Batch of 3 targets.
Target 1
Amino acid sequence: MLININLLSLTGTKNPGMKYFFFLLLIWTVIPCYGQNTDSLKKVVFSNSPAQSRLIAATRVAIYPVEQNPAQIIVIAKEGLTLAHKLKRNKAITLLSQTLGKSYDQTNQYDSAAYYYNIAAGILIKTNEQYILTDDYRRLAQGYFKLKNYDKAIAFNNIAILYAPQTGERASLTKALNQAGTFYEAQNNYQQALSYFRQAFDIKDSLNLARQTSENTSETYSHQFMGDVMGSIKQSQSEEEILKTIDIKKSLNDTLALSINYFNLGVLYKNKRLYTQSLDALKNSLQFATQINYADMQRSATNEIADLYEQMGDYKQSLIYLKKHASIKTSGSNTIDELQAKYEIKQREDQVLQQQFEITKRNYWMAGICIFILMMLFGGFFYDKQNKLKQRNAAMQAIIAAEESERRRIAQDLHDSVSQIISAAKINLAVIGGELPFVNEGQKIRFEKVINLVDYGFKEVRTISHNMMPWALHKTGLAQVINQFIENIKNDNITINFFSRGFDSPFDDTVEIILYRVLQESVNNVMKHANANRVDISLIRSEESISLTIEDNGRGFDTTNPDLFKGMGLNNLRSRINFLKGKVEFDSQLNKGTLVSIYIPLANKPL
């Protein structure tokens, strides 16, 4: 029963500076109630006192035995429960709900008892303390069993079985398991009853064996002796050898040896699935063991017979022998019930330790608050870092957009203005050349050179314009634009090989423009500085990523030299790739060429 009231829990006060005030308030309120009967408590609960004082008085009703005046306790506890809900005191709600459940159970109003037990369980589950209600649910199941409402009896008993292991007391679990077996036996469901009884008896057997081992009793040696004898017989002796031994022991009237050998004969037949012969042998073993009061052999034989009947599908007989197995007392000085009593005493000692834990709970609260503050600070730092990253990406995107806009403007001017002027100049020169008489052939050749220079300038302007703004990017795709770029810059001094996959049609504009500028910058660097005669370019797009590699056989450079990365070219290249959340790596050695590898994930890019 919950009778300890935590001051801080009931008042909701978490300020250590106020605890002494509320402690005095508790003393002032509770002392008059101490020793009062339920009538006095009822007057306090239904008075005009502060709600907190009335709630504290109401919780005192939990210490009174419900069987003395359940009706009065119900009235007080209901009013207290209303106050607890209003003040949001979960521990008081739990205590009063459990008290109401006990009271209604006492008055045989089992549905109401179940209702309030479930309220208490709902709160206790959150703190993993639902085991407190184990015995309450078990008694409630007994009530429904008396009414022959077996479904509800089994349902609430299963709740008790579920909660019982958490108490640490094996007695609660064995009682709940035995009760489940009784319920199923009343329904003639012997298979289920057998299952629950066996679980309960197995727990008792394990406790008994643990006691025997710890106390080093003669029973332990008896178990060990049986195990050695039985084990050696199972492994080495045949059916004929055991039957021969039995005949010899019968002539000598050796009852102990007959009990052991009949037992092993029964186990041998059981392993061979000769159930009828096994049953006869085991019953003979039980008969001889009973004659000499050999408790260990009696328990072993009844357990084997119960298991044998279960395998044969006769669950009723199996249940009968399993109960016989449980009823046989061992020869030790302590019974199972005494051992369980020791366990319960140990649990009460644990409850004292639990009170000490309550004293240190505040320290855990403070540690939790500190951890929460640290997590908030970490969250703020992470949010600030993400925000700065977004701002940096936005700034980078704005720079890229501004650069492309400026390139587009210059390219447009070159294409629409300068190239048109040069084209007009070429046409006029051609007309003039057709009208003027040349003095000699040399003058005509020089005039034709002038026209060729103008034509070359026109082509250069067109090339520069297309390199600054690849017009075909939005129409034919990145691969076609790169091919055009390579066609414009190729010469007899260098061979450029280009392989592409996945870019034959237009893709994401931003990604294509950045890739084109990175490739353009890298190839121009090779043309200017690498002194290479071969460049291999690979551009591949898959569903997950884009990879771009540019490899030359030029003079290379020392990648460990930080000065090489201070220029605008490589930094600009890296910033563009970082904007796409990609990676760029340089692999180069002096006189061994250079490999530029670029990887860009496509998790959030359109396909």
Target 2
Amino acid sequence: MLKSKNSSSFSLDWIQQIPSSIAIIDTDYNLISASPRWLVNFQFDLDQIKGKNLDSLFPELSQELTTRLKYSLDGLRDIKFKYNAKNSHYSSEDSIWHLNPWKDGYGNIIGVIIKTEPISKTQELELELNKTKLLLNNKRSVAKIGSWELDVVNNLLQWTPVVNKIYGLKVDYEPTLDNAIDFYVDESKDIIKKALDEAINSGKPWNVKAQLQQQDGKIIWVNTIGRPKFKDGKCTRIIGTIQEVDEINQIDIQLTKLENELNEYPLFEKIPLGLAIVDFSTGRIINVNQQFLKLSGHDKNYFLNKSVKSFVSSTLISKSDNLMQQLENNGVFKPEKFTYSNKLKHQLNLKVTGNLLVGRNNKKSILCTIENITTQTKLEKRLKNTINASREKNDQLLNFAHMVSHNLKTHATNFSLLLNFLNDEKGLTQRNKFMTMLFNASDNLSETIKGLREIVAVKSNVNNEKKSLCLNDSIFIVEQNVAGLLKQTNGKIINEIPDDVTIKALPAYLNSILTNCITNSIKYRSEDKTPIIILSAEENENYTILSIEDNGLGIDLEKYGDQLFGLYKTFHRNKDSRGIGLYITKNQMEAMKGKITVESNPGQGSIFRFHFNKK
């Protein structure tokens, strides 16, 4: 047994928050902490008893308690005993104490957790039943069994003095086979004679119960056993035992009575969970409790003798072989969740666990515990939705931050290029043309900043914010924004989109998506080719699909396909690559309930298809 010197360093604030009656002691049996309910139950003040030895708090339990605490510190789990309030100065009600080892994070036992709960009638019956079973086993172990031996060849019978006592005879009584059989009454005499005859002639042993009349006339039940012994193919002797079974029968009757009382007492009904007993071999329902009937809304006859598969989901049925295997191997099967529609057509989320029960004659059944976790499932779903919403908000914030950086960098690059062209140009006509382009770039920058302000105000329900936009109008604005890049690279945009094509999108998102994709087509161009970008559109039932095709470097999708839209993922050696654009674009499309598909091969360019949801 390991003793932790740091047990006091553990935070035990949690124990003050729990509703159960719990106390914690260290390996020296000193009280470390206790829950408010435990303190109330035993009328203690934590400040006054903290650190005191449990023996001093409960001197009436000293020997019994110390023994059980030692077992618990040795690693035994769920040790329990009955606490009698009449022997106590503190508590006014009897209780059951449950002792379990308390372990640190390394698995070392550093104390004992004691949980107390009021004792119920059922638990009292269980304790009495266990005591009676122990008594029965003890009595059986010391029960008087008489031995006897029959010499078949010489027809001589000998037995031990215990047999004399069972027959009610004096110790000096000399038995014979005939008078020994004569003590048996009615049909029992015939049973013994037949058993004896079959043993001698067929070698068949016997083990039977029969009625025997003692010498004083009292009739008792005895259990007699005979085993024939053969020599040279002939039965030469029979050895056996005889035992009075009335006393044991009485104990069996008491035991059966207690078991019946336990079964009749509504333990099966008092447990606040649904219970069902299922026949192991047939899968038919033997019994269900009232809590189960409350869940279902049906009466008991609706379930009795029906196959359990009639009431569970197909998912659970598909696992039935595995569950039966778990029962065979471990005696239990792990919790399984399934849905069930009750009589009122309410969809319930249930959790079932099973325990294998083995009764008399090795008859097997399954005790199924059914817990209604509908509320818990709803809370978990609500929590999951909250977490997802929070994650989505965080993604939107990150998306926005990257979009601001990315889009403003595009405008800054455009300004820088146009200013360089203006500075190098001497002709007045060309200078005026570049000035016009600068003014347009300035206006577009203002529009971008305005759009970014709109994004800040976007709520979680993007669908309410989407507008029907003329696709070519948005493309025209982006063409102006990248005019400097197109001129620098001699790039060309071929727009095959009809003027009447509209899409539902958030204006700022659409502008960002077009800008990212077109600038990428220029940025990742082939050195030996003039960049050409082809825009086209098509429609299906759910989406308007914008295709942007280029003749650039292309992407090895087999190698990078799963990383394509990752944050800070780059696939070409370009000093301006930051791995942000496609990440932003994907998030923007998904925020508008759309999606992106890609076709690309190294050296053969790429086609990005943007599926804008029509709803």
Target 3
Amino acid sequence: MTNEQRERERRRKAAAARKAAARYEDPGVDYQRRRRARKRRRRVRKVCIALLVIFIVVIGLAGGTIYWIKYGPTKETYDLNKYFGITAKSQMGVTINNEVLDAQAITEGGTAYLSYNFVQDYISDRFYWDSNEHILLYTLPRDMVKVAADSKDYSVSDTVNSEDYTIVKTEGDTAYIALDFLQKYANFDYEVYKDPARVVITSKFGERQTAKVKDDSQVRILGGVKSPVLEEVKKGDKLTVLEDVSDWKKVCTKSGIVGYIQKSKLKDAKKETISREFEEPDYTGIKKDYKINLVWHQVTSEAANEGIEDALAATKGLNTISPTWFSVTDNSGNISSIASTDYVDYAHQCGLEVWALVDNFDQNVDDMELLSHTSSRENLENQLVNAALQNGIDGINVDFEQIPTDVGEHYIQFIRELSVLCRVNNLVLSVDNYVPKGYNTHYHREEQGVMADYVIIMGYDEHFAGSYEAGSVASYNYVKEGIEETLRDVPADKVINAVPFYTRLWNETPKTDEERAEDQGTEAASYSMKVTSEALGMEEAAQRVSEAGATVTWDDTAKQNYAEWQGDNDSTYRIWLEDASSLEVKLGLMKDNNLAGTAAWKLGFETSDIWDLIQKYVN
């Protein structure tokens, strides 16, 4: 088609279009205004769409912000001084064995110190602080370590040594001990950190769970991203894992921060064993290669020592005797002594060792005053050992009774110090103890089992003179419990169980109205009977039952022969007999538990058949 033909075709189509449009147009309508309206509507629609888009974006941003505020991780940090309980400039925070404790440490001159109470509770209770004479003591097997307060010097026996720091500092009533010095005698590691000042201690060694940090992250005070941050941790840092808490793990960082981190932030979980080379002191003392068969001999005067020959005449198989020779007489540690060399010589001729007893029964003695002063303890210890050496005595038997709870730490320090002198002078040290109960844990049987050669259970006085009800002096279960509980703390080859050669004859009478009124508000009010008793040896007890014409029956619970009879004024007599039958059961417990031997209170209260019985069990 030529250009001319194309132009004619274009004109034709344009004319046809005008003709078609003219066919439908209404001459009365303003089509131009209509087109403008259509344009306006299109603009409005576009504006609305734009506003809707803006609204959706704003809502999305607001929702995202709210979501972030609610669920996004916070960057807030927790005050570490508050976390460690630090309230003063000299204080240090303490983390021990992955546990954050109250700030019981201080720093001075670049040296870190722990409070004495903290050392006792968490490091070693073998360190002893004399707050009266301001001396720190530590007991070695054959020496005593001594440090005066605010000094750089310390002595081991007679040798004086020095450090380049003050070993013990005092602030008011509190003593602080340098960690470097503590580490000489106790098994622990430690690291000191700054900002804030804190010490991280490990005293428990063995297996632990660890993991590494995947990427830089945070340890928070609680599980949850909104919890404040305690410490920023870096990729590759090793953490100790303590426990799982949902999607979080409780961890301890190298710098002693205990907090929480998301599980997803950790990798390479594994168990590791931590250890430290440390040689524990060996407090080995004297151990006999035979079962101990000991009896206490109550001697009340020097003249009474002359009765030893008659007292031993009927015995068999006995290898140890403990005469009651020494008593503490004052708070300075002085003693009274009725020791006899002739007595010792005769005992030795009979093949017996002599373990002389010392007691604290004098009413003039205040146990706290006596035992809480180092000078008083040393005076007592030196007097005992000197008396033993002068008289050829083989051992010392400590019978300190009714020690108050708050005197316990001083009492066990006395046992430690006495053990050193006994060990050096080849003397046997034995210590008497009650049957273990919650109220006498302050006697520190476990430490006795380390320091002493023998720990003796006084397996009697289950019911005693002051009891509110009648009962056995030493029933089977009472003795059994005493042995089993003692063996939780003391090795069997150091435990001696003591049996009674006596019993109590009880007299019960119904309480009068006046007596019940007097008992109101006291423990005695729970008991309807008034009881009195008297202690009887075996022979006398059997005689009293025979004289009353009472029938003897076997009490299978107490494992003893039992009798009762009526007295005057509606009273009833009751007695649980100690005899060959009851003692054999107790000796059986000794044998079953492979104890170091047996002891008995007291010589002269037994019947002659008892020695054949005991000899059968100890040999």
